[in-house]
Automatic annotation (TrEMBL):
Residues 37-215 form the MutL C-terminal dimerisation domain. One of its GO terms (cellular component) is mismatch repair complex. This is DNA mismatch repair protein Mlh3. The lineage of its organism: Eukaryota, Metazoa, Ecdysozoa, Arthropoda, Chelicerata. It comes from Sarcoptes scabiei (Itch mite). It holds the Pfam family MutL_C. InterPro entries: MutL/Mlh/Pms-like, MutL_C, MutL_C_dimsub, MutL_C_sf. One of its GO terms (molecular function) is ATP binding. One of its GO terms (biological process) is mismatch repair. SUPFAM superfamilies: DNA mismatch repair protein MutL. Signal peptide: none annotated.
Length: 288
């Protein structure tokens, strides 16, 4: 007789506690008034219970904070009233050299770059002496960037952003040609280019709570409630699942006979996370 069958025979109600393949998390049920915080486990996970479903959930604390920070960064980086990206000034302006090919692409669209992507560029090199005196490189200065940029600038960063902007401008132009009206929501999604989204993902990740950081019950409560207000509350900024259903908790006095089972389930989950981290660490040291 398998261990699972022995458990079923010893605990008849065990079947009702197990997570089924059909179990799925409902976004509408994940509300602040329907969540009860249990606490932090192993300085890595936050356990809570969905009251109406009696469902025990385990959240990755780093991924939870990352999702919250990511959506806040998006909100803070966009001027929703005027439908444009917020900008910040660079003083003194950042100077860099670009190829003649890239220069020819942006020469006549600097206004569009500023209007759509908050990128202000000034051409420093004169056309007539460009190729002869500058080895085929054009000197430009950048005095304004989107507010979501960090204060760490380098040439490759702006090269990638310029190429991203050029692709998005072409997409915007195609959309305007194929539609007769402007959709503000669609315009916002086009101005938040893939490059900018990735920048915000990295910022959200680096500034988030890490594993082995201890949290109080109040900290856990604030994080989970903030997560419940997010648009994509079950995935981190990179798209990975941040929550795992553990089991259904029996009601009232029925929970006492199953307390050991619940504790064993939590312990096994802790060990599973420990082994994954240990495996990654061993792999990293082996590569070195």
């Amino acid at each position: 007789m398998s261990k699972r069958k022995r458990w079923r025979k010893k605990f008849p109600l065990l079947e009702s506690m197990l997570i089924k393949k059909s179990t799925c998390l409902d976004r509408n049920r994940f509300r602040a008034d329907n969540i009860k915080i249990i606490g932090q486990a192993n300085s890595q996970l936050i356990f809570c219970r969905l009251t109406d479903q009696r469902l025990l959930l385990a959240f990755d604390q780093h991924a939870v904070h990352e999702r919250i920070r990511f959506e806040r960064l998006i909100e803070e980086s966009f001027d929703w009233k005027n439908n444009r990206l917020k900008a910040k000034q660079i003083a003194p302006p950042y100077e860099m050299k670009i190829s003649v090919e890239l220069y020819e692409k942006i020469e006549n669209i600097t206004k569009e770059l500023e209007r759509n992507f908050a990128l202000k560029i000034a051409i420093k090199t004169q056309k007539k002496i460009t190729i002869k005196d500058c080895d085929g490189k054009i000197l430009i200065s950048i005095s304004q960037v989107p507010s979501c940029f960090t204060n760490f600038f380098y040439d490759g960063l702006f090269h990638d952003f310029l190429n991203d902007c050029l692709k998005q401008l072409q997409t915007i132009q195609n959309k305007l040609e194929t539609t007769r009206f402007n959709d503000p929501a669609r315009d916002r999604s086009l101005k938040l280019t893939p490059f900018l989204i990735e920048q915000m993902r990295m910022q959200a990740c680096k500034g988030s709570i890490q594993f082995n950081e201890k949290l109080t019950h109040k900290d856990c409560d604030e994080l989970i409630k903030a997560l419940s207000g997010c648009k994509a509350c079950f995935r981190c900024a990179h798209g990975r699942i941040l929550v795992k259903p553990i089991l259904y908790i029996p009601e009232g006095d029925k929970i006492n006979p199953f307390r050991k089972i619940i504790e064993e389930k939590i312990d096994s989950l802790r060990m599973e996370n420990f082994l994954v981290l240990k495996k990654k660490k061993h792999k990293h040291s082996f590569q070195k």
